[in-house]
């Protein structure tokens, strides 16, 4: 196997693990709730704690990978990811499970921050869209297999087996990555690590993510405003710092980079909670088993897996904004249609809408990633990859935050139990309304980015 193919194989395999875990766990959430006595809001934090941690640590690890070598951070991430996955499998209470998921997110952040950067720096510009499309397809393959295997494993072996399998798969990646990835000290950049900027950034992001689900209450508003103020302070400090965590000046005039990242943030904010919500709908309202639920939820990621390499390759020839904006438009249609979901909706209707959304996601993701990575210099690949990953993870966390906010507003803390199917149905429908409306400005940002080829 050639060096480039080895790099593609290792990074693709690593990129498969995190979405596979996320989609498999979403299917197992009702079983976790029954086993550990958790309500819908607590179960939401099983997913959100992971996303929160990954979003907070992603940008610092991206900067560290540019400074000290991407292979080092990548390897450390896989090892930590495996250890914390086993810890989640052994968790005996709601608190321990959420804590282990938080640390699992830190390991995931190291993988997110380096995989795309390693891949981008290893292939010429004319092949970039193709290999990024393959990498994105591996993400969607994980999303495809997660519901099916997760549902089957939950029914036969229990929800803990999912975490154990993830730990084993990550362990298998470790020796392959250690032998196949080249040391990249020549890519490292000079300067000191911006510890104070990293702390302000992480704390601000955590306040926003933690406070958003508590809106519109006073406590949520206070957390949200403090987080926004912290990000403003972070931006001010970074402009004056000699070696900043994020070189804002380098990207401030880069319209493609800015609007592509904004589009990614909105896209993931509007779409990530889809499987989370449909898992509850199919199991708690329709009364389906985890296995049947997993099979139904395969429709969307299968479409993404099949079409992402095609969309990525097309973005090497066509302007990414054309493909990505078309995908965002399809997403608006699919999410809007899901807002009409009710207890009597047919399975055919649900599968059809997933196919539409799968096509929209595929047209958006690979071309958008290609646009971001093609808009910066090679020396900034690590921080560009981490910035895009931060938009993705922050968007995913916001998506969960919107869902949890709907649960809290409509069901309340006392009525958030899984048995409240009427409140659950109403919460799901209102969440889809918000997501569809959110995607409309995302389509504008996607079109606004402009061309990457002059």
TrEMBL record:
Keywords for this protein: Membrane, Transmembrane, Transmembrane helix, Transport
Topological category with respect to the lipid bilayer: Multi-pass membrane protein
Compartment(s) where it occurs, according to its Swiss-Prot or TrEMBL record: Membrane
Residue ranges of the TM segments: 40-61, 73-92, 98-119, 131-150, 162-181, 193-212, 218-237, 258-282, 294-314, 321-341, 347-364, 398-416, 428-447
SUPFAM superfamilies, sorted: MFS general substrate transporter (SSF103473)
Pfam families: MFS_1
GO CC annotations, alphabetized: membrane
Highest taxon of the lineage: Bacteria
GO molecular function: transmembrane transporter activity
Protein name per its UniProtKB record: Predicted arabinose efflux permease, MFS family
Organism: Lentimicrobium saccharophilum
Occurrences of domain Major facilitator superfamily (MFS) profile (ranges): 7-454
Cited InterPro entries: MFS, MFS_dom, MFS_trans_sf
């Amino acid at each position: 196997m050639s060096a480039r193919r080895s790099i593609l194989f290792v990074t693709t395999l690593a990129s498969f693990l995190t979405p596979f875990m996320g989609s498999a766990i979403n299917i197992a959430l009702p079983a976790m709730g029954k086993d550990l006595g958790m309500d819908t809001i607590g179960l939401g934090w099983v997913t959100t704690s992971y996303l929160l941690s990954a979003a907070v640590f992603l940008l610092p690890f991206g900067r560290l990978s540019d400074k000290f070598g991407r292979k080092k951070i990548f390897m450390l991430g896989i090892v930590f990811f495996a250890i914390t996955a086993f810890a989640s499998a052994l968790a005996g209470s709601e608190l321990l499970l959420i804590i282990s998921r938080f640390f699992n997110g830190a390991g995931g952040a190291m993988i997110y921050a380096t995989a795309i950067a390693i891949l981008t720096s290893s292939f010429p510009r004319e092949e970039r869209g193709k290999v990024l499309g393959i990498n994105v397809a591996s993400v969607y393959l994980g999303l495809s297999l997660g519901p099916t295997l997760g549902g089957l494993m939950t029914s036969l072996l229990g929800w803990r087996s999912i975490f154990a399998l993830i730990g084993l798969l990550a362990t298998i990646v470790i020796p392959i990555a250690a032998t196949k990835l080249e040391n990249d000290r020549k890519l490292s950049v000079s300067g000191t690590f911006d510890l104070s900027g990293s702390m302000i950034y992480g704390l601000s992001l955590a306040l926003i993510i933690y406070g958003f689900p508590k809106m519109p209450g006073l406590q949520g508003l206070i957390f949200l405003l403090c987080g926004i103020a912290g990000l403003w302070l972070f931006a001010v400090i970074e402009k004056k710092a000699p070696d900043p965590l994020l070189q804002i000046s380098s990207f401030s005039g880069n319209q493609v980079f800015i609007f592509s990242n904004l589009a990614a943030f909105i896209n993931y904010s509007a779409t990530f909670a889809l499987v989370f919500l449909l898992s509850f709908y199919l199991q708690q309202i329709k009364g389906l088993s985890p296995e049947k639920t997993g099979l139904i939820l395969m429709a969307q990621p299968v479409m993404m897996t099949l079409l992402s390499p095609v969309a990525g390759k097309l973005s090497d020839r066509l302007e990414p904004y054309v493909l990505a904006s078309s995908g965002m438009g399809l997403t608006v249609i699919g999410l809007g249609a899901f807002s009409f979901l009710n207890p009597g909706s047919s399975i055919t209707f649900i599968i059809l809408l997933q196919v539409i959304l799968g096509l929209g996601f595929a047209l958006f993701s690979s071309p958008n990633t290609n646009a971001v990575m093609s808009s910066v210099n090679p020396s900034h690949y690590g921080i560009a990859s981490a910035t895009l990953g931060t938009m993705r993870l922050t968007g995913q966390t916001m998506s969960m935050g919107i869902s949890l906010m709907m649960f809290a507003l409509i069901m309340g803390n006392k009525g958030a139990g899984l048995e409240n199917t009427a409140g659950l149905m109403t919460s799901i429908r209102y969440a889809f309304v918000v997501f569809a409306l959110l995607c409309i400005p995302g389509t504008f940002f996607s079109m606004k980015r402009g061309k990457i080829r002059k």
